[in-house]
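Course assignment 3, question 2. Fill in each field.
Student: A.L.
Task: Predict the tertiary structure for the chain below.
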Amino acid sequence: MFLHIVCLLSLAVALPSNVATSPKPGCESTCGNLQVPYPFGIGIGSNCSMSSDFDIYCNTTDNPPRAYLTRAASPFEVVKISETNIYVKNWRQQQIVACYASREYFSLEIDYFANSPYTLSDANQLTVFGCDDLAIGQHLSSDSNYSAYGAGTSCAPYCESREVSGGTGSCPGNGCCQTSISKGKKFMMTRLINMEQNWQRRKLFSCSFLSLGMLNITGFTFRLSDLNDSTFLNKYPALTDIPLVLDWRIGSQNCSEMLNSSSFACKGNSYCDDSLAGVQGYNCRCMKGYEGTPYLSPGCHDINECKNSPCHSNGICINTPGSFHCYCPNGYYGDGSKNGAGCIRMPGSNSKVAIGASLGAGMGFLLLLLTCFWLLKFLKKRKNKKQKEEFFKRNGGLLLQQQISKHEDILEKTRLFTAKDLDMATDHFNESRILGQGGQGTVYKGMLSDGKLVAVKKSKLVDENQVEQFINEVVILSEINQRNVVKLLGCCLETEVPLLVYEFISNGTLFYLIHDDSAEFPFLWNMRLKIAVEVAGALAYLHYATSVPIYHRDIKSSNILLDEKYVSKVSDFGTSRSIEVDKTHLTTLVKGTFGYLDPEYFQSSQFTEKSDVYSFGVVLVELLTGKRPISSDRTEEERSLATRFLLCMERNNLETILNSQVLEQGKREELTAVAKVAQRCLNLNGKNRPTMKEVAMELESIKMSQTLSTSVETTFEGVRLLNAELAMLPDADYTWTSISESTFTSSDVTPFMTKTF
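Answer field:
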């Protein structure tokens, strides 16, 4: 143990010093003269801040540029951001100019920070200039009750009448008063009241002035006669540039409630600091001996205290994590501290002996460093090996071994990648490599050492449900061998979260192709029909051609990918389930995507093969209409695309909902036939829906009829023969090969999304 500690102390000398508090990587750090650290960020919706509460708008048209707090109800200029405070100013929202005339009082309501993480700081003061006035500041006792004002503060400036002519005011004192306000409030009512009648004398000066903010006016003097001028504050520059200090914090829960939460904001080498009692939220601060941004991974960094020479001039300083250590070299004694005993030369010490001793000590120290280096390397290697074994167990390795015993060909079809392989392939999981994010995790684009492009799926969380879904996806995809199902290349279990490696699909999702109006590629009707045939064939394969029927449970256009030749690939099997042959349904927690979800499954929690049929029906309607499954701009009855489509079919006005390009390119009878297939798929009674085998056969027949109608080499008898063969094919021998396979071929490069690098 002692050797290990000495090694850490020795190696700590080479560690880099800490960086100052900084913005999120890739984001601007300054706006004019203002430093903007994370969790704040410059830009509205730019993803540079922790949330929209901390967005800073930078007006670059000003010279120099000025920053503004966007979360307040009124625009406040930001002049400084500290560890727990933000300094803002909007002079019109911080002052009262009261030239009474016929009015008895003037008021100012501070309510600009409702529903935000900002509260008024006790660094602010209520300052009043005038005579014969009473200033009152009251806090709301409840954020939701604007009439329930609670305790507050007050002060009353007073002037001697003999000093009116040519008199001098002072703060605090003659013609001026100042009082502090309470901390942690968002709402405040300030009021300036004329006390002329109460003092039983005439008003000495025409106007009085109230300001709210951080103002140090000790020893400040002014001419009392200036209180007759409504521009009094502008005559004294020190009174027109007063910042309003706000406390800020994270979230609405305290530290004890957030410590075990996945959304806890405090990163490494930092601690959580609660706000005051009665104020929700917390701040993160670096531990002693550390500095940096505690809200950004990996957290705060060690400070190299040795740079500032904290030890005695003859002493030696060694930096340690969070601290430092001073000691004296050979020939000296003492504690090595600058403020302690220091280092005192030993009596009678010989310079040659000292040099020899120093050289010996240096060689010994070097040998010790080398020994420490190899020892730490060995310990790190053993620790990494043990950690990988723990990750393997936690990520479902034992569950996968059980599945291998049932499916011996799994490892023959998939490759076990190492963590190093995938870390290099994704450039250390760089954010610029992200292809997409979903409920199960994040997908990164990667390139293997052999130059092959892949997509790496990294789970978000590590829990039993996620692990079970991960292993389930490995087993399912390993058993599938179909050209229209995304290919699983391998997995990695030795990392903190489980990883899947797929073929890379280059042309994004079907959802993007259907709904992105900016897409330059013309989405023709024959291609829409081809994709429908391919997806139907893939689902029929999953339902009938695998050893155990597989229900996808989340069929939607965003889970259908397109390769470089626009061949469709069904993806995302994280929620899929296999079902015993003699069972008709699977009882589970309801999972799926709103708009595609089978209403019958939603009500009964019993997922059947007909539930996949319903979801496919919604995709088919998307292809026909070019519309989204859910439209928020329509009435509740017409919000669902499936409902609107069924109503059009019942009213025999299909053309009103079809896509204009589809109407132009498709034949009427062909479009009607496909629409009727979709109508049957969307039947609210699952028993009345066709099977995916029937759907695939019908769409294949429509596609084949379209092909034959444009070909002079294929006869009508050929159509009848192929339909007859499909109809006679038994379930056990049923395989799916699209007619279009002879025309379109898939390549091996290729899942997920549309970015290119």
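Instructor remarks: The domain at 304-347 is CATH 2.10.25.10 (Laminin). Residues 461 and 497 are 7 Å apart (CA to CA).
Grade: pending
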